[in-house]
Amino acid sequence: MLKFFRKIRYKSMSQNKTAKYLKYAIGEIFLVVIGILIALQINNWNESNKNKSIEKVYLKELLEDFEINLKKSQNTIDKIAGTLPKLISLLEQSTLEKPTISIDSLNKNFSLMSSMPAYISTDRTYNNLIGSGDFKLMTNASLKSKIADYYKYVDLIKLVQSTHEMDLVNTFQPYIIEYLDYQAVPWLRVEDYPLPPAVDKNRILNVIKDQKFRNIITLKIHILADLLDLNRTIEQINEGVVELVRQQIEIND
């Protein structure tokens, strides 16, 4: 087509037909511009398809990660919810003239003072998105906002867990070492290397009515209640992310 316009333009020049020459020169320029625009459009279309393909891969990986995170948050909630009643039971036993549960049960419940259920986020895909700069390929603004909210809470819960772990080291474990028989309240048992029987498992009866005993249990209950609230919030955000990712996968398909 350009060759055709060029022949006419040269012919017009040789015949000194300036107006006709300009007309065909403009037509030639117009065709060149149209060609460039079409090429750019095709390039943009190819780039868009490439980005959509990359986004699909990331979305499937995000779904896997946040389904794992959802289960983790639920498991952490279950652990805390299972621990709190046993610690409350210890408080109730401390007010009685004589405990109504066995010494072994008292020690077993108190062993939960060394338990610190922790939520550890699976961040493989998110780290890849941020590290590669591909987070901008996520087209769902609501999903990006929800993920940002999630990681704000992850940072918060890490800080809270770290603070409570210091309480474990500085408060709970020293109390057990000083006032109880640690062998009677082991938090972690290794089946291949069992501990010998406790020498004085009845020591808990000497402190169960002390105010310090009740205070330390109450502190632990408050710590676990704090973690429970945070993990419930994390669970809700996980559910929201999973739902949004599933919706976006359906849209992209």
Report on the architecture of this protein.
With 253 residues, the protein is mainly α. 18% of the residues are buried. 76% of the residues lie in helices and 0% in strands. It has one domain.
Please mark out the parts with pLDDT under 50 across 5 or more consecutive residues, or reply none. none
H and E order: HHHHHHH
- CA gyration radius, whole angstroms: 34 Å
Major sheet, described briefly? none
> Tell me, what's the shape?
rod-shaped
What is the distance, rounded to the nearest whole angstrom, between the alpha carbons of the first and last residues?
40 Å
Number of helices: 7
Count of domain modules: 1
Helix/strand-derived category reads: mainly alpha
- The strand count comes to 0
**Integer average pLDDT:** 85
Could you state the oligomeric state of the chains shown?
single chain
Specify the helix fraction band: over 70%
Strand percentage? under 5%
Topology of this structure?
Blueprint: H1 2-14, H2 18-94, H3 103-110, H4 124-132, H5 141-179, H6 204-207, H7 211-252
Helix pairs in contact: 1-2, 2-4, 2-7, 5-7
Characteristics:
253 residues, mainly alpha, 7 helices
Explain briefly what this protein structure is.
The chain has 253 residues and is mostly helical. 76% of the residues lie in helices and 0% in strands.
